[in-house]
């Protein structure tokens, strides 16, 4: 059973009661992320995500770790470009303890100067880890190429200089400004009643400020930009793509089907064309990144430098031919694949909780699995072809390659296209 309540201070609470389970997944989703940061705050949303685990007025950092481990629960968080989520999964009998732990972390964290100093080093190590992970790094470079003058193009983690500048005062001021009740969605799925969740969080979060979300700058996606970053790696790591849809666009269901056909599994056009038929890559896939007012699609491929021209030619021919190569049979298979993945995800309370939160933030309502599958089924062949013609245009690609530039002997063919 699905239920939704909006508290007087603007907090939205959405739940799905599943009495046949023994677990609960709950997430506190704040609609704030790296896109909302000023230049001097770059990376602070992610840094705060780290800091709330460092201790509060009731629980020390060790308490936070041990309380959940000893009960077989899981407590974690993640930061995106437009949202930050703090969530737990526990046995239903431990719900009250987990909820109290989460409340204390979000409302009463200490942000002690010595903890800020210590966690700064941890985050700097995390930054170094990404620099040593070429598949991760090339995605950051790709978004920087798409939005070079916009916060959407900045890596979520920040930079060495910005991370060094964070102080307890900056953290508290940022949370006061952005962690407000009107930007908070509480989503829960499992063996917990809606009334109990409302009772748990209504009083606890009553002290949050009620400021609405500040406006963000209009993002302008750059088309036709290409760059090659020289790095000592065994493979070339390539990301390419262009502008797509916002997360509120009703055509996102059609885009999901397109993405599935393009690079959503071992039967996809990318996997078959680059790996199975030609043996040029080990790993390739497509992805969509959808935001409040804009979005992007992308393709990743990792391959040996000697295969540069072959990979590029396959990709270019593939995208040029997509509008005419998509058949009704392909669309039918993609619908079955997407709906099957959706049904399988329903076996996880964490996935159900995430679906509730995203439905609220993207559509302002609860979107049931049945409604989602109906929308997927309603996408027709003509809509798919029209959308493919609109967004999958190789002439509008932006691209970034990362790897040993001196081992690419051919002229970069993409420079002649972009």
Brief descriptors of the model:
418 residues, alpha+beta, Cytochrome Bc1 Complex, Chain A, domain 1, 2 domains
Describe, in plain words, how this protein is organized in 3D.
Strand 1 and strand 2 form a beta hairpin. Helix 9 (252-263) crosses helix 12 (328-345) and helix 12 runs antiparallel to helix 14 (369-378). It contains 16 helices and 11 strands. The strands form 2 sheets. A 6-stranded mixed β-sheet has the order 1-2-6-3-5-4, with helices on both faces. The model is unreliable at 414-418 (pLDDT under 50). With 418 residues, it is of the alpha+beta class. The chain is globular and about 60 Å long. The longest helix is centred in the first third of the chain and has 19 residues, at 113-131. It folds into 2 domains: 2-135 and 147-204, 2-Layer Sandwich (Cytochrome Bc1 Complex, Chain A, domain 1); 226-417, Cytochrome Bc1 Complex, Chain A, domain 1, CATH 3.30.830.10.
Topology summary:
Layout: E1 2-6, E2 12-17, E3 23-30, H1 44-51, H2 61-69, E4 74-79, E5 84-91, H3 95-108, H4 113-131, H5 134-146, H6 160-165, H7 168-178, E6 184-190, H8 194-204, E7 226-230, E8 236-243, H9 252-263, H10 269-276, E9 281-290, E10 295-303, H11 308-325, H12 328-345, H13 349-363, H14 369-378, H15 381-391, E11 398-403, H16 413-417
Parallel strand pairs: 2-6, 7-11
Antiparallel strand pairs: 1-2, 3-5, 3-6, 4-5, 8-10, 8-11, 9-10
């Amino acid at each position: 059973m699905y239920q939704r309540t909006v508290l007087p201070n603007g907090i939205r609470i959405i739940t799905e009661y599943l009495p046949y389970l023994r677990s609960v997944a709950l997430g506190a989703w704040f609609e704030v992320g790296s896109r909302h940061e000023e230049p001097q705050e770059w990376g602070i949303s992610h840094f705060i995500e780290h800091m709330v685990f460092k201790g509060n007025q009731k629980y020390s950092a060790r308490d936070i770790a041990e309380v959940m481990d000893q009960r077989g629960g899981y407590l974690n968080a993640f930061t995106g470009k437009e949202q930050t989520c703090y969530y737990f999964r526990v046995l239903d009998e431990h719900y009250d303890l987990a909820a109290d732990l989460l409340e204390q972390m979000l409302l009463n964290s200490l942000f002690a100067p010595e903890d800020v100093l210590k966690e700064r080093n941890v985050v700097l190590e995390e930054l170094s880890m990404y620099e040593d992970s070429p598949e991760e790094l090339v995605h950051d470079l790709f978004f920087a190429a798409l939005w070079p003058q916009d916060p959407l193009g900045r890596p979520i983690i920040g930079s060495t200089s910005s991370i060094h500048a964070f102080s307890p005062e900056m953290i508290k001021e940022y949370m006061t400004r952005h962690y407000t009740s009107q930007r908070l969605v509480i989503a829960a799925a499992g063996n917990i009643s809606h009334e109990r969740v409302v009772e748990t969080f209504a009083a606890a979060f009553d002290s949050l400020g009620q400021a609405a979300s500040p406006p963000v700058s209009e993002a302008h996606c750059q088309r036709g930009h290409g760059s090659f970053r020289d790095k000592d790696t065994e493979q070339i790591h390539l990301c390419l793509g262009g502008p797509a849809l916002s997360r509120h666009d009703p055509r996102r269901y059609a885009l999901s089907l397109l993405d599935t056909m393009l690079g959503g599994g071992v039967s996809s056009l990318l996997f078959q064309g680059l790996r199975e038929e030609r043996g040029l890559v080990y790993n390739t896939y497509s992805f969509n990144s959808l935001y409040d007012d804009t979005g992007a699609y992308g393709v990743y491929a990792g391959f040996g430098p000697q295969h540069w021209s072959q990979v590029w030619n396959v990709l270019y021919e593939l995208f040029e031919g997509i509008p005419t190569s998509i058949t009704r049979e392909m669309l039918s298979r993609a619908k079955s694949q997407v709906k099957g993945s959706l049904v399988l995800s329903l076996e996880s309370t964490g996935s159900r909780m995430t679906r509730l939160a995203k439905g609220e933030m993207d559509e302002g309502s609860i979107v049931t699995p049945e409604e989602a599958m109906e929308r997927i089924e309603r996408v027709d062949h003509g809509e798919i072809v029209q959308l493919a013609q609109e967004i999958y245009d190789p002439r509008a690609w932006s691209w970034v390659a990362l790897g040993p530039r001196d081992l690419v002997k051919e002229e970069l063919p993409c420079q002649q296209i972009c």
